[in-house]
Every structure is written in structure tokens, then in C-alpha cells.
């Protein structure tokens, strides 16, 4: 059963009760992320997420971890370009303890100077870890280039030089500006009683003052065709690739058509890329496609890796698949199979209360409402075969493709092959 409450201070509380569940999931989502940063606090949103775990007036960092571990629960957080999330999962009888910890983190965090300096080292190591991972590095470079000079082109982790300059004043200014009730969505899913919802309402009414709601920023983020970027490193055996184009934002009416196209292209084990490049021709172990969607922008990305000997053949195969789908479309049988896949995945995801928590929050962040599982399924079901074919013909064009490649010495010579295929 779904319910929502909007408090006088414009904070939203969304709940979805499942009586058969043994657990309670609580999520606090702040509609603020990397898009809300400016040059002087670049990396601040992610840094702040870390600092809320580093101690409050009531609890040390160790106390936070031990209290949740002591009830057999899970506590975690993550930062995106457009929001930041803190969430717990516990047995239903421990939900009030989890809420108390989350509320304490949001209202009583110390932002201790020594802890800030220690956490800088942790985040710098996190950045190094992602830079050392070829897939993470190449996908980050693709985003940086396709969204060049826009907030979506920034790394969520931040810039090393600016991370070193972050201090308590910068963190507090960001926190006080964005961690406001009108920017918060609280979600509760699983098994719980009305007392938990009433307690959330009381806590967040008494401790967060009424403030005029800020309008959600809806500006479009422009993307840029950048061609091809190539990076070479020692001690790498494969050429890792990120090949893609501008995607669609979650609020775009054609977004679900792109979801279907992605599944057909490389988003499943029966997709064209997986079956042709890996299963039939054995040119790659890892290959597939995925979409990244923000409010008003996104990416469609093909990623994977192949050794130098196979790479040009794999690249030819990728272009051949794109040309074939764009020119000849797909069969009706493939269309219906793909719709069943997406509908089944959507319905099965709602068997997990934690997935429901994330879905309710993100729907509210992007669309100011949660319409439920039936609407989500209908959006897929109502796409016709002809509509998808028309969308594919207009959207999927090889001249829209851009690429980032990371490989061993000699990788730069593949530019000529890219230019030959791209035209």
C-alpha cells in the first residue's frame, strides 16, 4: 500500500507497506548533487556524504557503524549528479534505531577538522582506485567529453586539487544551502507501522523550519560530439572502449523507447552485441550497452574490451550492428520479446522493498510524483512496433557516435580505422 505525506515545510514522506516483509527500509534523499556544485566546492557533495558518517554530537564514527551492525542492519549512502541518498535496511523491530541514527547524522554531524583532513586521504584514494580501473576511467572520460563544460561532465568524486582545499566552512555552506526540507524526500518500504511514519513527521517538522520551496532546476544540459579520444598506458593488455552518443533524460517522452533499444542493442544476453561479438565471433569477453539518464540528458554507451589483434574486427562488428539495426530495424518477434524482458524486470524489481524505496524516491525527484508499478508497465506496453522502428531510424545514427579508447602502446593507430568506419 502506497501513501505520501507532504509536510508544511515541503518535505515529502513516501511509504509503501508490504505486510509479508521482515524488513524496513528507510531512505533520505536530498535533491542535491554534483550539479549543485561550483568551482570552489567541486567534489563537495560526495565529500559531505562521507562526512555524515564521521561522527555526531551523540555518536562517534565507530558508534554509528557498531550500532547498525549490532542490530544486524545495513547503512549506506551514495552521491549522484542530481541527488544524494542515505539509507538503512533492518529488521522491522529495529527500524526506530535506524531512523535515530540517520536523523542524528543529518542534524548533529560535527564536521570535525581532523576528520575532514583524514577523509581527504580516503577520497583521494577512492579517486585513484577509479582511475586505475580501465572501465571506470574510460567511461568517466566519455562523460567528461560529451558533457564538456557542463555540470554533468564533472566527476562525482571531485578534482584532486580542489578536494585538498575543502574545509569545514565549505562543507557547512553547502550543507546549510541544500540539506533543507524542501529538498528532501524520505521513503519507507517493507513492514512498518504508522508510529514510524508519525515519528518521522514529528522529527522533521520540529527540527527543520518552514522555508519557501525552491524551484527545481530544469535547464537542459547540452551534449557535444567530440569524435574520438585515445589514451595509452603501460601494463594494459586490452583496448578498453566506450562508444556512444547522447541519450535521453528521464523526463523525455521517448525515454522508454531508448530503454527498449538499449536492451536490443547490448543490454541483455540475447542482444545483438553480445550474441554477435562475443558468442558468435569470440572477439570480446566483456561487451554490452547501457543508458545513463538524468533529468533532461543522458548517454547511450557501448563498453567492453578486446585485445589488439581482435579490436579492429570488434569495432567493425559494432558498426555493422548499428548500421543494420538503424537501416533494417528489428523483427516483431524481437520487439515483443524485448518488451516482455523489460516488463518482467520491472515487475520483479518490485519484489524487493529496497528497490521500491529507490524507485519511489527517484520518481519523485525527477517527476514530482510516484505513479506506481502499473503505470511503469503501461508505459512499456503502450509502445507499438511501428513507434519503436520510427524512433530507431531517427535516433540511432553512426555519425552521432563518439568514442574513448584506453589501451597499450600503439593504440593511437586505431584512429584511422575509426575514421574509416565512422565516415
Q: Could you walk me through the main structural features you see in this protein, from its secondary elements to its overall organization?
A:
- There is one protein chain.
- This protein is α+β, with helices and mostly antiparallel strands and 423 residues long.
- It has two domains: 2-206, 2-Layer Sandwich (Cytochrome Bc1 Complex, Chain A, domain 1), CATH 3.30.830.10; 228-422, Cytochrome Bc1 Complex, Chain A, domain 1 (2-Layer Sandwich), CATH 3.30.830.10.
- The protein is 46% helix and 18% strand.
- It has a six-stranded mixed β-sheet, with helices on both faces.
- β4 (74-79) and β5 (84-91) form a beta hairpin.
- α1 crosses α7.
- The protein is globular, with a radius of gyration of 23 Å.
- It starts with a strand and ends with a helix.
Keywords:
423 residues, Cytochrome Bc1 Complex, Chain A, domain 1, 5-stranded mixed β-sheet, 46% helix
Which helices and strands occur, and which strands form pairs?
Elements (H helix, E strand, L loop, with lengths): L1 E5 L5 E6 L5 E8 L13 H8 L9 H10 L3 E6 L4 E8 L3 H14 L4 H20 L1 H13 L13 H4 L4 H11 L5 E7 L3 H13 L21 E5 L5 E9 L8 H11 L6 H9 L6 E7 L4 E10 H21 L3 H18 L3 H15 L5 H9 L3 H11 L6 E6 L7 H8 L1
Parallel strand pairs: 2-6, 7-11
Antiparallel strand pairs: 1-2, 3-5, 3-6, 4-5, 8-10, 8-11, 9-10
The name of the CATH architecture of the largest domain is 2-Layer Sandwich
Number of helices: 16
Helix content: 40-55%
Structural class: alpha+beta
Rg on CA atoms, Å: 23 Å
**Terminal CA distance:** 54 Å
Q: What does the main sheet amount to?
A: 6 strands, mixed
Number of DSSP E strands: 11
The arrangement of helices and strands along the chain is: EEEHHEEHHHHHEHEEHHEEHHHHHEH
Annotated CATH topology of the largest domain: Cytochrome Bc1 Complex, Chain A, domain 1
Uncertain segments of ≥5 residues (pLDDT<50)? none
CATH class of the largest domain: Alpha Beta
Mean of residue pLDDT values: 94
**Strand order, biggest sheet?**
1-2-6-3-5-4
Measured by DSSP, the beta-strand proportion falls in 15-25%
What is the number of independent domains? 2
CATH superfamily of the largest domain: Metalloenzyme, LuxS/M16 peptidase-like
Global outline: globular
Amino acid at each position: 500500500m502506497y501513501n505520501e505525506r507532504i509536510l508544511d515545510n515541503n518535505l515529502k514522506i513516501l511509504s509503501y507497506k508490504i505486510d509479508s516483509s521482515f524488513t524496513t527500509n528507510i531512505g533520505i534523499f536530498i535533491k542535491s548533487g554534483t550539479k549543485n556544485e561550483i568551482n570552489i566546492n567541486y567534489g563537495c557533495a560526495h565529500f559531505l556524504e562521507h562526512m555524515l558518517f564521521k561522527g555526531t554530537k551523540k555518536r562517534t564514527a565507530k558508534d554509528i557503524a557498531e550500532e547498525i551492525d549490532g542490530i544486524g542492519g545495513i547503512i549506506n549512502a551514495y552521491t549522484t549528479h542530481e541527488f544524494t541518498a542515505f539509507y538503512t535496511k533492518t529488521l522491522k523491530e529495529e527500524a526506530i534505531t535506524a531512523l535515530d541514527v540517520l536523523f542524528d547524522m543529518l542534524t548533529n554531524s560535527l564536521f570535525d577538522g581532523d576528520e575532514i583532513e583524514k577523509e581527504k586521504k580516503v577520497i583521494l584514494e577512492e579517486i585513484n582506485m577509479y582511475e586505475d580501473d580501465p572501465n571506470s576511467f574510460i567511461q568517466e572520460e566519455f562523460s567528461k567529453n560529451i558533457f564538456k563544460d557542463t555540470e554533468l561532465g564533472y566527476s562525482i568524486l571531485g578534482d584532486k586539487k580542489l578536494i585538498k582545499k575543502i574545509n569545514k566552512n565549505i562543507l557547512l555552506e553547502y550543507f546549510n544551502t541544500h540539506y533543507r526540507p524542501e529538498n528532501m524526500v524520505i521513503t519507507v518500504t517493507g513492514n512498518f507501522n504508522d508510529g514510524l511514519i508519525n515519528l518521522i513527521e514529528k522529527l522533521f517538522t520540529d527540527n527543520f523550519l518552514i522555508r519557501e520551496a525552491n524551484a527545481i532546476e530544469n535547464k537542459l544540459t547540452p551534449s557535444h560530439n567530440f569524435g574520438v579520444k585515445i589514451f595509452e598506458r603501460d601494463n594494459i593488455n586490452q583496448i578498453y572502449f566506450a562508444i556512444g552518443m547522447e541519450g535521453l533524460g528521464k523526463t523525455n517522452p521517448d525515454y522508454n523507447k531508448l530503454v527498449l533499444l538499449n536492451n536490443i542493442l547490448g543490454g541483455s544476453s540475447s542482444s545483438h552485441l553480445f550474441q554477435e561479438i562475443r558468442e558468435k565471433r569470440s572477439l570480446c569477453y566483456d561487451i554490452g550497452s547501457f543508458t545513463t539518464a538524468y533529468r533532461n540528458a543522458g548517454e547511450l554507451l557501448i563498453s567492453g574490451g578486446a585485445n589488439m589483434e581482435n579490436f579492429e574486427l570488434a569495432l567493425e562488428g559494432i558498426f555493422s550492428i548499428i548500421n543494420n539495426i538503424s537501416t533494417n530495424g528489428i523483427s516483431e518477434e524481437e520487439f515483443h520479446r524485448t518488451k516482455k524482458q523489460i516488463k518482467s524486470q520491472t515487475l520483479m524489481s518490485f519484489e524487493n522493498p529496497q528497490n521500491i524505496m529507490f524507485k519511489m524516491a527517484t520518481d519523485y525527484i525527477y517527476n514530482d510524483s510516484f505513479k506506481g508499478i502499473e503505470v511503469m508497465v503501461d508505459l512499456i506496453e503502450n509502445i507499438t512496433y511501428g513507434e519503436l522502428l520510427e524512433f530507431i531510424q531517427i535516433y540511432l545514427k553512426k555519425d552521432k557516435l563518439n568514442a574513448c579508447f584506453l589501451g597499450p602502446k600503439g593504440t593511437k593507430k586505431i584512429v584511422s580505422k575509426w575514421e574509416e568506419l565512422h565516415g
